[in-house]
Amino acid sequence: MRSLSFVLLALATLLTPISAQFGFFDQMFGGGGGGQEQHHGHGHGGHQRQQQNAPSDGAGYRAQYARLHCDNYLCPDTLACVHFPHHCPCPWPAHEEKVELADGQRICVSHGGFKAGEAARKVELARKGLL
C-alpha cells in the first residue's frame, strides 16, 4: 500500500508541470483550453468581454482625421497639428530618429541600435548614392 501511495504521489508531481505547460501554450496561442471553459474574471464569477480587433480598413482613422481641426498642417501619421510638414513628430520617437529632407519633408528612421545621429548620417549617405 505504501508503494502505491508513493507511485501516485510521484505521478501527481510529474503531471502538474505538464498541465501548467499546456495552459501556457493555450494562453499564448489563443487556444480555448482544449474544450474547457476558461474564466478570466478575477473572482467576480463573470466573463470579461474580449477586446475587439481594429477594423481592417481605414474607416476609423479617416473618422478621427475628419474630427480634428488644424489651421496649418495636420500630420497624416501622428495627427499632430504643426506649421510645416517637416515639423511633424515621429510616431515612435523612442525608437525612431526624425530626418528632414531637402524638399521640406521628413522621414522617420528606426534607430536600429545605432548611436544618436547615425541613422540620419546613413540616410544622407544613401541620398548621395554613397551607401
TrEMBL record:
Disordered: annotated segments: 33-58
UniProt KW keywords: Signal
Source species, domain of life: Eukaryota
GO biological processes: ERAD pathway
InterPro entries: LCL2
Signal peptide residues on this chain, from the entry's feature table: 1-20
Function: Probable component of the endoplasmic reticulum-associated degradation (ERAD) pathway.
Similarity annotation: Belongs to the LCL2 family.
Protein name per Swiss-Prot or TrEMBL: Long chronological lifespan protein 2
